Amino acid sequence: MDVQPPRIRGPETTRAASPPRRAIPLLAWNVIAVVLGIGIWTVLARVGVSGLPGPQAVAVRAGELAMDGTLLDDSIASLRRVLIGFALGTALAIPVGFLMGWYQTARGLIEPYVQFFRTIPPLAVIPLAILLMGIGETPKIFVIFLAAFLSCVVSTFQGVVSVDRTMINAARVLGANDAVVFRRVIVPASTPFILVGMRVGLGAAWATLVAAELIAAQEGLGYRMQQAQIYYDLPSIFVGLITIGVLGLIMDRLLLTTEKRLTGWQERR
C-alpha cells in the first residue's frame, strides 16, 4: 500500500479568497469633488481673499433673486437664446459637415470659409451684428449660432472623412449604392463625432452668452451679471456664474446620455 506524503498547503490555499474590491462609482467622485470645492471656497472666503463672498452669502442672494422671480426670468431668457442659437447652429452644421466630407467639390468650396471664420472669435462679430441686425434678439442669437455652428461643423466633417474605407468598399461590394452607403455606413460611423461636436458647440454657446447679452439686453443671466458688476455686487455675479454652469452641465449630461444610447456599439473605457 502506497503512502502518499501529506499535502502541504501554501498560504494561497489556506487564506480565504478575498472578495474583489468594489470601485467607487463615478457619481460618488463627483459628489466628493463638489464638497471639496465648496470647502476650499469657504476657506478662501473666510481668510478674506480679494473680498470673495462665501457660499452662504451667495446662497442667500440666490434665494432673494429666486423669491422675486428675477433668477427664473433671467434663466429662461438666457436658456431660450442658447437653445435657439445652438439648435440653429447644429441643424446647419451637420448637413454642411456631411457635404464637406462626402463631396470633394463641396469641401473645396466651403472649407476655406469655415476655417477662415474659425479664426475669428464670435465675440468679435458683435459690433458688425449690431450694425447689420439692430439691437433686438437677432444679433444675440446670431452670435451664439455662429459659435455653435463652427464647433459642430468641423467635428461632423472629421467624422465623415475618418470612416474606414474598408467599410465603404465592403458595402459597395454587397451592392449598396451611394444613398445606402451614406445612410447605413457614413451616418452611424460619424455619429460619435457629431455628438462630441454638439457638446463642444453647446459649451461655446454658453461661453458666448454673456457677451451676446451685452447687446442692449434687458434680461438674462449675462445682463444681470453686468449690472451686478456696476454696483460691485459679487454675490449676484456668483449666482449668475453658478446658474450658467448648472444649466450648461444639465444640458451636457443630456447630450452625453443621448450619445451613450446612440453609440452603444462603441467600445468605452
From TrEMBL:
Gene3D superfamilies to which the protein is assigned, alphabetical: MetI-like
Chief location bin: membrane
Membrane spanning residue stretches: 23-44, 82-103, 115-135, 141-163, 193-217, 237-256
GO biological process: alkanesulfonate transmembrane transport
Membrane topology qualifier: Multi-pass membrane protein
InterPro entries registered for this protein in UniProt: MetI-like, MetI-like_sf
The family this protein is said to belong to: Belongs to the binding-protein-dependent transport system permease family.
The protein, known as: ABC transporter permease
